[in-house]
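Page 42, continued from yesterday. The earlier attempt failed because a stray header line got pasted into the input along with the sequence. Redoing it now with the clean sequence only.
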Amino acid sequence: MIEEELVKSMPRLGFGLMRLPRADVEKDTIDIAKTCQMVDAFLAAGGKYFDSAYVYNGSEAAAKAALTSRYPRDSYYITSKLNVNAKGITDEAKAKAEFEESLSREGVEYIDFYLLHALSSRSLPKFDAWHLWDFVRDLKAQGKIRHYGFSFHDKAEVLDRILTEHPDVEFVQLQLNYADWESPSVQSRLCYETARKHGKPIVVMEPVKGGTLADPPEAVKELLHRANPSASYASWAIRFVASLPGILTVLSGMSDMQQMDDNLSYMRDFKPLTEEEQGVIQKAQKILSEIEQIPCTGCHYCTGGCPEHINIPDVFSAMNWKLIYGNERRAESSYKNCTGNGHGGAPDCIHCGQCEIQCPQKIHIRDWMDRIAKELA
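This time it went through. Structure tokens are written below.
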């Protein structure tokens, strides 16, 4: 199990490598020079935990270029994840081969924290049938990984069943943020309480809900600004989850030095939310609960197999400009910018459903495409 001392000493901010700066957005290539600057700043501030995954496009190679080839192995923790729904993964052997490929991409001999990726009731049968629980246990016994866990996207009752059946799991990665705290679909609070009941340290993902809480609706902005004019909106979200007991680290998918500098400004010397600040968050939660929106976090798991090449997260982001902010002009222009030039639009959706199989948020993507086709296309 993870040593109590490691949990206590782990810096509370982790560097998520899903949303690194892009040198070419169209080709989805990562800007290594900018990534190096961010890695340098993160380590200089005392950070250690870097979160990558087999399916985060370019993240593992970027970790090698910006981190593992430039710093001593004992100066950082590197993670990766095994995804049974990744493109081309059709059987047990191919799934297990992800691990060695991740080692090669990242340029390391072992991985500190290795996760079975995006567990849910839908994906769980593959993890069981392909003996992947035994696989990660064997990797640890061989010294190829230091700790194993899983990331999770489902209801609390499913999480409880997994942790009951696999009590040796050392940590879990959960989507926790104040917007989803009482969400009936995400169940942030219930999942958090379930992990705590089983005594598992928690790595937090999506603390700012794919950027939504870094740029919340105007009513929330006004509330937070009145409470603390000098605090960024993202800081409220990250400090909310970092203040919870049992947190190993909070991942922030930073895309530029401005985000890095902001996060380090309040997480380098972390102070939990006060009782008064907790009250402000509760008011923000009430405001958000009354606003219709598409709960997309921009993970892009849905786009790889889309036969019409629809940039689904960007289409949803455009629609949210109308739903959350009431800005129809911005919604229409954003929609226009993310369609065409090889990318399909909402009317092109053929309802094949592959996107919904991949979606961690369990969004009814096809229904939303029908609505967006009527309102924005």
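Notes: Residues 312-375 form one domain.
Reminder to self: strip header lines before submitting.
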